[in-house]
Structure formats: structure tokens, C-alpha cells
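Let us practice reading a record.
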Amino acid sequence: LRLAALAQRARCAPGEIPDDVVPWVTALLEEIRTASVSGAGSEPPRGAAPTLIGQVRELLEEHAAGRPAPWTEELLRTLHAALDDRVDDRIALVLAQLRSPDWGQRSDAIWLCGGLIRVWRGRYEEVVRLVGDQLHDPEPRLREAATSFLERLFELGAPAADALAARLARAPRGPADGFGDGSGGFGGRSGGFGEGCGDGFGEGFDGVGPSGREGALIALARAGDVRAVPLLARALEEGEVRRELLYAVDGLGPSAAVL
């Protein structure tokens, strides 16, 4: 209720948001997380929903599944909108969320800081680095959010380059794993960037699938990191790649001459 009241006040009177709003909101989020975890219980499964409204409800429930307090997302969106040009406060709030033990809060932070970075100038190096850390989280929805965010940063994604390279390096290498022999890799039919699963660059990306791994490679190349070059070479040998992956070659400068 206190967080909802703060969000409503911010919406109606943004000029009255207190200077110490970030530590206050962070403390409230931690309190909500702790209370939600301790009081969490399993809900009975719903039956199939034949109507459009029922299908929308299922999508929303899938999005909220496993999250202690999914309703905080909309409140934080309202607060971010009210903070507007208070960029330092918004960055501090995003950083606090990205350090939360709750993967849902970290996921919300990723989606929220996307609009922040597109509109306002600021010091986002730590934000980007922490988003890169989410690539190693066991929750696939969080990894997907992080990959999608980093893919759109281009050179601003450089602070996450080590995390991206480490993520890509965890896949199998060599002909037996689908590089260059048409049996997998980036574009092969049995587990690459094209479709399928198994070895190579399909479901081997810790369950994220082809699009997640391809997005990580696009992000690394757009950041201008030369570690993307050999992986891009393998991808191009396979044949079927996303158009964005081809355009990402430009971000590598002279190091891409070997391609």
C-alpha cells in the first residue's frame, strides 16, 4: 500500500517526490519481496481458456509465474515516468533493482532502463554491466530480457562484453558440435540459429534457444568486441542467419576484414 501510495502521489504531483525516494523505494521493495516469499503458496491450475480474454489471462499469468510480487512492475513504471529528468535517481533505482535477490525485480529493471537510456544521457556503464551479469542467471525469462536489451545498445553495450563473450564461450566447439558441417552450429537444421535443438548453438545455450544465442552474438558484435569475429565467421559459414547479424559486422571495423 505504501508503494502504491507513493506511485499515485508521483503521478499526481511529480514535483513533490522526496529527494530520498530511491532508498525509500528500495527498502519497500525488499520488504515486499520478503513478505511475498514467506507467504507464497501454490495456486490450483486453471483449465484451458477458449476465449480471447482467457488466453490473455494465461499470458499474464505466465509472465507473473514464479514472481513474488509481479504487481510492483506497473507501480515502478509510474514512478519512473514521474521522475522524468531526474536521471541520477532513476539510474540509482535501476541499479538497486538489478542487485535485488528477486529475479523479477531485476527483469523489471531491464525493461525500465531501456526507455531511460534511449531518451536521457547519463552514466550507464554500471547499469549495462549488471544487465550483462543477468546472462548467467538460471531464470530463462531474465536471460531473454538481458539479451534483448543488450542487443539494442550497440557501442553502449561494451561494459557487458565480457559477460556476452563468456556466455557465448559456454557452447560446444568443433565440427562434432555442428560448426561448419551443416549438422548444427549457428544455422544448421539440428540445433543452430536456424531452428531445432541439441548440440551447437541451439538449446545448448542453457535453454534460451537459437534466438537468445544469436542475440548475444549480435550484441557482442555491435559493441565492437573482436571476440565476436570467429563466432561470426562460423555463423556465416552455416548460411542461415538473421539479417541483423550481417549488419552487425560493420561494428567490428577493420577486425572484420577476415570475414
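A brief commentary: Residues 160-259 form one domain.
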